[in-house]
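This entry is retained here.
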Amino acid sequence: MMRSLYAGVSGLQNHQTRMDVIGNNIANVNTTGFKRGRVNFQDMISQQLSGAAKPTVEVGGVNPKEVGLGVTTASIDTVFTQGNLESTGIATDVAIQGNGFFVMKDGEQTYYTRAGAFGVDKNGTLVNPANGMRVQGWMAKELNGETVLTTAASPTDLVIPIGAKDPAKATANVNFACNLDKNTPEILQGASAADIAKGTWNTEFKVYDSFGNTHNLAVSFTRVPGNPNQWQANVQVDPQNADQTQTRVGLGTTDGVQNTFLVNFDNTGTLQSVTDSAGNVSNPAGNIVLQTSFNVPQSNPDAQGNPYRQTFNIDLGTIGSQRNTVTQSAAKSSTKAYAQDGYTMGYLDNFKIDSTGTITGVYSNGTNRTIGQIALASFANQGGLEKAGDSTYVESNNSGIAKIGESGVAGNGSMLAGALEMSNVDLTEQFTDMIVTQRGFQSNAKTIQTADTLLETVLSLKR
């Protein structure tokens, strides 16, 4: 009877523990990134009344006789199943699809979380605004004019430079494409102004100097009389100020050349070669690139007192190709510059986070710059993590060391900006568990009551 009393007590105690876990799950049904707990029971040690006996020649074997002494909690697991994703429309909210944890820093202490309700503090640092913990990742660096993001380095605080300047960049490359009409009339000697206009195809495109000022790049094409597959191109930067800009264009150099060049096509209308005004002929294969230079207004002269000249490349496309290349076909002329890489100064207006956690800055001058990338951590045994409050976890002796890397690598999941991962608590399941727990608790209480009745009967034997 005493054994049944204590077995009943252990049942009450452990079912209370299970109810505590269920209550905590239900309390966190709307907690961002919360992972539900699960209680597993196992029986306690049993008291052996008699041991087992092996078979003999005369009789068979005898099983042991054991009385169980109750129940104990085997484990309280954290179940890391995927929670549903809720769209918020807030750019700094990030959800993880798949495995992985965000890495957070509080001083030198590292925490891990699935809750991605982030924000930016007054210094531009990406943080959890509820507790100020800083989100960890890698910041991009400018090396030789290129943005480099090294994810092999140790993660650091992520800082969004809101309002930062993106300095102006001078145009270095201009790409031409499309078509010159094969049926454009030749401009003969003594042609009228109207005939000249009909026989000239003019193109204009904006380019930028090192100050961010815009200039008008004008390239006009006319057919060369007597040569059916040859065109002459005339290049001017700011034609209205041609005397000041003094545009020159050549193959490999702009020294000793003028502002014209000849474009040659083969009988299929594809680009064949270019000859500049100094007689230099383009390479026999590959892209045809011409250097163009002009005087930049209101700039300091060089050491020899010459005006400061800016040089950029005009890419006419690939020899023998019909795609993204200047061609000659019996169709309406449409040759134009379709891309250039210069821009004026701008300010960081906004930023966005993609599925890899890469943070891209959007500047007022139309450029996009990689700012950094959010890091993710994974563990050999994520169930071994210890809860540290604020929806965070810390490493334990059984979780393994955090493997920090980028999204989509080494088992890490992907990210979704503008969304949050909801709690993975299923209320239907929790209420069912609550009923089972309640009935288990009541049954163990009944065991104690019955044992007490038996004890009362024993005591009443002597009156």
